[in-house]
Amino acid sequence: MSQESFVIDLQALAKDGGRVHRTVPVESLGRLVESLLEPVGTVTFEFQGERDDEGKLYVDLQIQGDLVLQCQRCLEAMVWPCNVQNRLLLLRSGEELPENELENDAVDALEVEPLTDLLALVEDEVLLALPLVPRHENCEPPVKAGVDDEISPFAVLRQLRGKV
Ligand SMILES: [Zn+2]
After folding, report:
1. Does the keyword DNA-binding apply (predicted)?
2. Does residue 73 sit within a domain?
3. Distances (CA, A) of 79 to 15, 66, 125, 134
4. 132 Cα to the center of ligand 1, angstroms
């Protein structure tokens, strides 16, 4: 299977109210893979274009997929269900953000070139959404060999108390 190109004219998609819906292997997202414990599974994304009554161009973006991160507490694998939803206002390069959109938190402005790499955009959005310190809800730190050699401050405190 040849590598499908996801470089498209995003503004044209929005003008036509078009939609792109694809599922790609996680390993095709090279920058994201660097943040994962294992590059397994797939990511599904959808771009839904929209032109509003004022002629402004939007794309509603949805990304879903189970990503395997490393828990920072027990250091084991943890599956993080990625679920990104974003509404992007498309601006031509150099175009100012309309004033009434400045305070609209629900919309992110995106300056688009004539051609946009959808995969790169998906990757950017997922990277932004990744938890900074992924952790299972309930887990224990690994028991390291030789942990007895390290004297924890609490153990010292208990010893001191015992002497009093
Ligand atoms: Zn854990």
Report:
1. no
2. yes
3. 37, 6, 18, 10
4. 14
Decide the pairing of beta strands 57-70 and 77-92: antiparallel
Query: How many domains in the chain?
Result: 1
Residue 80 lies in a domain: yes
Average pLDDT over residues 47-67: 96
Is residue 33, in this structure, part of any structural domain at all? yes
Q: Which domain holds residue 19?
A: 7-163
Residue 128 tokens, joined: 């932004």
Ligand 1 centroid, distance to 129 Cα (angstroms): 19
- HSE-CB at 95 with a 13 A cutoff on CA atoms is 14
Q: Which residues surround ligand 1, an ion (CB under 5 A)?
A: 71, 73-74, 136, 139
pLDDT for residue 90 is more than 90 = yes
